[in-house]
Design a protein that fits this description.
Layout (H helix, E strand, L loop, with lengths): L1 H19 L8 H10 L3 H9 L5 H30 L9 H5 L1 H7 L5 H12 L2 E5 L2 E4 L4 H5 L5 E2 L18 H14 L2 H24 L4 E3 H18 L5 H4 L4 H10 L2 H4 L4 H9 L4 H24 L24 H11 L4 H18 L3 H7 L16 H14 L1 H11 L8 H4 L3 H13 L8 E3 L5 E3 L2 E3 L4 E3 L2 H4 L43 H18 E5 L6 H4 L2 E3 L1 E3 L4 E6 L2
Parallel strand pairs: 2-8
Antiparallel strand pairs: 1-2, 3-5, 4-12, 5-8, 6-7, 9-12, 10-11
Helix pairs in contact: 1-4, 3-4, 9-17, 10-11, 10-25, 11-18, 11-20, 13-16, 16-18, 17-18, 20-23, 20-25
Bound molecules: protoporphyrin IX containing FE.
């Protein structure tokens, strides 16, 4: 018995040293769990087969003993390696975080990941070991290092594997091909057309604000509707009129619920993957899959609308009605054309679905698609990613406009010189407006902490600190926006730092709301256009005021759930004299 226990213990060490210490294992998490649950059964089964009159109780206890010895060996080896021999062992950070990502997950249980990281920054300095093989950088040059062409995407981007999209792939080749399609879909010529459509959407918002007659408006909600409508327009060539009808849809709420999973679990992506594999029908995991179903059906619906004879996998005839078809190009039509021109195999289909889903979630769902989808029980699942980035950015911007009226007045003055404040191209040339948006994104970015890369094998150096190769790195925008090494009076909202007071910015590299380089945000121009249009409308026509206090809840209740989910904002929009 003792010999077998010792053998089991050493087997645990051997498995760690020979297998788990190498490579990434997140994609195999479900199989690893299964093997570890099933393998111990082999021993009692073997004994039962070879022995007559087996007494199962002692045999079971014996098996449990060997299994425990194996696990103790495995854990001892993991602990010793991570604490004393890992290439990051000299970096400061919480000891428990160095031992396991579970500590980080636990700390993020209230979806306040951005504050957890900021607390660690204050405690441990600019380079913090936030995981066994993870370093989080709080340094003005960190964003640039992340976007270094040598850095690779981390395991996080396998979240939806085997499905993929421009953002959800670690393969440079796949990314490059998908990125080219995105670039085509959002070319300068297409942007002119999308900006023309934005004029229509901003008119709807104006009507909605005017109709409120100065009554309190739940801004978070309205901005989600507005972002939906815009996405419906440039994404699907459809007018879904959510602002006009002032109505939520079930699918959108489902998505919000599904994304909350990522608040606590984003630091350890193998946990959601275990959930997807073992408990797909449980609570929010089920919502996650419904969200994926929706993304698939969106793809099919759009395809069916433009190409009725296409061979679509889903029953989607009713998802898009004829009124949603458009003669004008839209983002999804470019992706669908690309798909139909190719082999139309499972791989291409997964890519199509992944990229359209990215776009849908970036701007939220079109209503008519969602309402139809609630009755659509597709057996397929796909993944949606990026996020609802535009809507929270709009809410945060309105919060800042109401909170800092003197600085907003400067933008208003600048806007008074503009003939057409619904022309996104003209708005893009206004420095005061851009400065206000920059300052808003600096202090409360839509992506608070998400984004990670892996250093190349030769490692990388930042300001004299060498980061070894093969290490996962992160640079949370929430903290980078508040670095005293990068900004003077970093916690104050001072829009002039982007215009007349450049001395208030010590290091511009710290500001990167859309990232830079080959993996930067492809929707940046569209997103900025929406922010500028809303600010211009509100400032030229309305006086903003809080109903209670100063809107502190926006920041105090903000959640970090892949994207920022701001706390409740209620404002009154009274027509200017
Ligand atoms: C204020 C709104 C937005 C913000 C702050 C934002 C920010 C970002 C950031 C930081 C990334 C890089 C993520 C990474 O590190 O992996 C990114 C990627 C991406 N974004 Fe956005 N985004 C916004 C709106 C949009 C919109 C409206 C769209 C779609 C039209 C979009 C589509 C994408 C895509 C496809 C990628 C992946 C690009 C690639 O991998 O080549 N984004 N975004």
């Amino acid at each position: 018995m003792a010999t077998y226990s010792a053998l089991s213990f050493f087997a645990g060490i051997a498995v760690h040293q020979a297998i788990f210490i190498r490579n990434d294992w997140h994609l195999h998490a479900p199989s690893i769990v299964l093997v570890h649950l099933l393998l111990p059964l082999c021993y009692p089964l073997y004994q039962a087969y070879h022995t007559q009159d087996v007494d199962f109780l002692p045999l079971g206890l014996q098996t449990l003993g060997y299994g425990s010895a194996y696990l103790i060996g495995l854990l001892c080896s993991i602990l010793t390696y991570r604490l004393f021999f890992h290439r990051l062992y000299k970096f400061p950070g919480p000891r428990l975080a160095a031992v396991s990502k579970l500590w980080h997950v636990w700390k993020c249980r209230h979806s306040l990941g951005h504050l957890v990281l900021e607390e660690w920054h204050q405690q441990y300095g600019p380079f913090v070991r936030t995981g066994p093989n993870e370093l989080t950088m709080f340094h003005p040059g960190a964003a640039e290092l992340m976007d270094n062409p040598k850095s690779m995407r981390s395991d996080w981007y396998d979240l939806i594997h085997p499905r993929a999209s421009a953002i959800f792939t670690r393969s440079k080749a796949v990314h490059s091909v998908r990125r080219k399609i995105w670039d085509r879909a959002l070319s300068q010529a297409s942007l002119v057309e999308y900006y023309r459509r934005f004029k229509h959407q901003i008119r709807n918002l104006d009507v909605c604000l005017a109709d409120s007659n100065g009554a309190p408006i739940y801004v978070n909600e309205l901005m989600y509707w507005y972002a939906f409508d815009n996405m419906g327009d440039f994404g699907f060539g459809a007018d879904f009129g959510m602002v006009r009808d002032q109505r939520w849809v079930e699918g959108a709420l489902m998505m919000r619920s599904a994304l909350t999973l990522l608040g606590p679990f984003s630091p350890a992506i193998w946990i959601p993957r275990l959930g997807f594999a073992f408990v797909p029908n449980l609570g929010k995991v089920r919502h996650w899959f419904k969200m994926l179903d929706f993304a698939d059906a969106c793809t099919d619906a759009r395809m069916k609308a433009s190409y009725p004879s296409s061979n679509s996998n889903h029953k989607c005839e009713n998802v898009v009605n004829h009124s949603t078809e458009s003669a004008n190009p839209d983002v999804s039509s470019i992706f669908i054309k690309e798909f139909l021109a190719g082999p139309q195999d499972q791989h291409s289909r997964r890519l199509l679905s992944g990229d359209i889903a990215t776009m849908v979630v970036a701007g939220r769902y079109p209503r008519s698609l969602i309402t139809s989808l609630t009755s659509l029980h597709s057996p397929y699942v796909r993944l949606t990613t990026t996020s609802d980035t535009t809507a929270p950015s709009l809410t945060i911007l309105l919060y800042h406009l109401a909170r800092y009226p003197e600085q907003a007045a400067r933008v208003r003055k600048e806007l008074s010189t503009v003939a057409d404040t619904a022309d996104a191209r003209v708005l893009a040339t206004l420095p005061e407006l851009q400065a206000f948006i920059n300052e808003s994104q600096r202090l409360l970015p839509a992506i608070l902490s998400f984004g990670s890369r892996v250093t190349p094998p030769e490692g990388l150096t930042l300001d004299g600190t060498f980061i070894p190769g093969g290490v996962k790195i992160g640079a949370p925008r929430y903290s980078l926006g508040r670095l005293s090494d990068a900004y003077v009076r970093p916690h104050e909202f001072i829009a002039e730092r982007w215009t007349t007071r450049p001395d208030l910015i010590k290091d511009k590299r710290s500001f990167s709301p859309f990232a830079t380089g080959r993996m930067s945000c492809v929707g940046k121009n569209l997103a900025l256009a929406q922010l500028r249009l809303v600010a211009a409308l509100v400032l030229t026509k309305y006086k903003l005021s809080f109903v209670d206090g100063n809107g502190e809840l926006v920041e105090d209740d903000m959640k970090d759930q892949l994207t920022a989910n701001p706390g409740k904002l209620v404002l009154q929009f009274k027509p200017l004299e």
